[in-house]
Write a structure and sequence with these properties.
This protein is an all-alpha fold. The protein has one domain: Four Helix Bundle (Hemerythrin (Met), subunit A) (Up-down Bundle), CATH 1.20.120. It has seven helices and no strands. Helix 1 runs parallel beside helix 3, helix 2 runs antiparallel to helix 5 and helix 3 packs parallel to helix 5. It is globular and about 55 Å long.
Length: about 180
Amino acid sequence: MMALLPTLLTLLRVFLTPFIFRDVVDGHCHAALPLSILAGFTDLADGFLARRLGSESRLGAWMDPIADKILLTCLYVSFGIANLIPDWLVWLVVGRDAAILAMVAVAMVATKVREFPPSPAGKLSTVIQIAASLVVLASCTGFASAQGLVQASIIAVALITAWSGVEYVWSAVHRFRAARG
């Protein structure tokens, strides 16, 4: 049973996502914040536990980034709908993830490449996007100290998201060239 715990945590992150989305869109940031903290914790804990328990799997390695993309896309789209962040940031976050998924799809069809390890900038992007989402939610609930951090969080998300997007495209071009000979 313990070997399944990392996968269950990943699935919990996906399960929480529509409730977080609904709460943000409905203006219930006080309800979305603890759910988002829990979802962020599952992102940290699933990989750690998989390594610690020796239960790393191809399924888990595949599911974790998909769960991250589902959570972060829903968070940032809901923030845009609720006017908590600028629309351009929503487009940047969602566009980067869509581009990454498109590159993976092309690689799966056009090459024999089947592994797509996250880059360090991609991992950092996920952490910063989650942390920034917690700042946005804390600000939305009225935490005065968080309100001053929202603009800095938006800038940090924009910079690391753009950087990791460029890095993924650069890496994909090199991998495609290498795979095609």
